[in-house]
Design brief:
heterodimer; A: 250 residues; alpha/beta; Rossmann fold; three-stranded antiparallel beta sheet; 30% helix; 24% strand; B: 279 residues; mainly alpha; ABC transporter involved in vitamin B12 uptake, BtuC; 77% helix; 0% strand; globular
Chain lengths: 250, 279
């Protein structure tokens, strides 16, 4: 049974200020419980799409319907690791999105933050300083913040960057569980093999190249159009991978 | 020990200093966390011509300092947006221009004696108006900081994420700068144009060394500022040194003392470098 989409985009073009469009022709739907991997080179428009989904960029052309609240789960190195704040306080920040400017997260928000930390497996780390947590734990705290925000869609920007294998596996299980509970997940990533395990992929390189289930969408012409020459065959039949590129956000 | 407390001028100085310390210590935590120390110093220097004009005209210093701060803020905003001029350069140009203008005025024949008090402050001789202004500042900070706490905390942690939560980083910045400007205008009369920044930056930096949460940091910073203020006033009383400079030195001394006790950057402390284990 096809459900009402959480997000629907059609013919979408996005850009900053008076500059040329960063990405064009974007059209996709995200349904409850769906995990969508957003693939593309640096500068290809992934982060721009995430910003539009957060309501920070208007559509230059086409339409974008976001019917639910979206929670941002950024890369944790963009947060200040020397900041005097606990994991619980970071999670409770999610409540600020629905509070008037003069209110701070109160007891109810802190209780919700505790539950969210427990949901991501960090109930014992509420009082730990955010910067003291490992990369995987920090990423899960930011997911908890999005849960406190009551976000039905989580927008994740390369959440697996820098994680070791156990942390990455734990995070992937958590994301799958959240999807099973009905959350929609959009994840910008460079990891082709991981994207193949997700429900759908959206490939962009200044324009939309393909969208759909990975088995159908991720063929060689699509990958070449998405990444150009940056695709390599892994030895021993290990599939294809994207050459690591410098971090660069648009 | 209690002798200075029997002197009426010291009683007034202690009241004034304690009020400025409470406001400066608490507000200073956000100044340090938002990396606005240079802005704090710039604001203080920029209002110097306003102080001199007020002294020449014989009007309350507050009335001269306030328009000077507003003018400096506008000039910095304009200079920062000129093509090829960055924020740092814009601030530096405006601050040196304003401070130079103040010095020219201070050295003019019309300038009354005692202009050096504008540079170095007169914490030992506060007027009733100075004390009332300091009390009003404490009230303003005590009301505004709790109201702004959630926004300030989230914005300082990650500006982009704060924006994604629907918050306005520009609002947090503006609110903080307005509070800082108000505090500078009031505190500069007691602590002087050159030394006032010490009460905003020093106690907060000390508290940052000793705490790893914003709530305790604010409490410790306020306590450190009050302690340094008292120590500076006592030093001034017994050693005959300048009041504002003695307070500034006491603030620096407490900061240096806090370094070996610091939690930050030590393996044994609770704030060891990031990168724990996944559980």
């Amino acid at each position: 049974m096809q459900t009402e989409p959480l997000i629907a985009a059609s013919g979408l073009a996005l850009g900053y200020g008076a500059g040329p469009p960063v990405v064009t022709d974007v059209g996709f739907e995200l349904h409850p419980g769906e995990r969508l991997a957003l693939l593309g080179p640096n500068g290809g428009g992934k982060t721009t799409i995430l910003r539009a989904l957060l309501g920070q960029l208007p559509a230059r052309a086409g339409s974008l319907h976001v019917g639910v609240s979206c929670g941002s789960v950024p890369q944790t190195e963009r947060s200040r690791l020397d900041y005097p704040v606990s994991a619980l306080e970071v999670a409770a920040m999610g409540a600020l999105s629905r509070l008037p400017w003069w209110k701070r997260p109160g007891r109810e928000a802190r209780e919700q933050a505790r539950r969210a930390l427990a949901r991501v497996g960090l109930e014992e780390f509420g009082e730990t300083t955010f910067g003291q947590l490992s990369g995987g734990q920090r990423q899960r705290v930011l997911i908890a913040r999005a849960l406190v925000q009551d976000a039905l869609v989580l927008l994740m920007d390369e959440p697996f960057t820098g994680l070791d294998r156990p942390a990455a596996e734990r995070l992937e299980v958590l994301i799958a569980d959240l999807a099973a509970e009905g959350h929609g997940i959009v994840m910008a990533t460079h990891d082709l093999e991981q994207a193949r395990r997700w429900d759908s992929v959206l490939c962009v390189n200044r324009r939309q190249i393909a969208v759909g289930p990975p088995a159908q969408a991720l063929d060689l012409p699509v990958l070449e159009a998405t990444y150009g020459g940056a695709i390599v065959e892994l030895p021993g039949g290990g599939g294809r991978a994207v050459l690591p590129a410098q971090h660069h956000h648009h | 020990m209690f002798e200075p407390l029997t002197e009426p001028f010291m009683q007034r100085a202690i009241v004034e200093m304690t009020l400025l310390a409470l406001a400066g210590g608490a507000l200073g935590c956000w100044v340090v966390l938002y990396e606005l120390s240079y802005a704090a110093e710039s604001l203080a220097h920029s209002l110097f011509p306003g102080l001199v004009i007020a002294a020449i005209a014989g009007i309350p210093l507050l009335l001269g300092a306030t328009p000077a701060v507003v003018l400096a803020a506008l000039a910095i905003a304009v200079a920062s947006r000129l093509p090829g001029v960055g924020r740092d350069v814009g601030v530096a140009v405006v601050v040196t221009t304003m401070f130079g203008l103040g010095v020219l005025l201070a050295l003019s024949p019309d300038s009354p004696p005692g202009v050096e008090a504008l540079l170095f402050g007169d914490i030992l001789g506060p007027s009733d108006g100075d004390i009332a202004a300091a009390a009003a500042l404490v009230l303003l900070v005590a009301v505004a900081l709790p109201l702004l706490h959630g926004r300030l905390l989230a914005t300082g942690f990650d500006r982009d994420a704060a924006r994604a939560l629907g918050l306005s980083p520009a609002f947090a910045d503006a609110a903080l700068l307005v509070l800082l400007a108000a505090a500078t205008v009031v505190a500069v009369q007691g602590l002087g144009n050159l030394l006032v920044v010490a009460v905003f930056v020093g106690p907060a930096a000390t508290a940052r060394n000793l705490t790893d949460r914003i709530g305790p940091m604010i409490a410790v910073a306020a306590a450190v500022a009050v302690l340094a203020g008292l120590a500076g006033l006592y030093l001034s009383y017994y050693a005959g040194t300048a009041g504002g400079a003695s307070v500034a030195l006491a603030i620096v001394a407490l900061y240096l003392l806090s370094l070996p006790l610091g939690l930050r950057g030590t393996d044994g402390g609770r704030l060891s470098p990031a990168g724990g284990y996944d559980h």
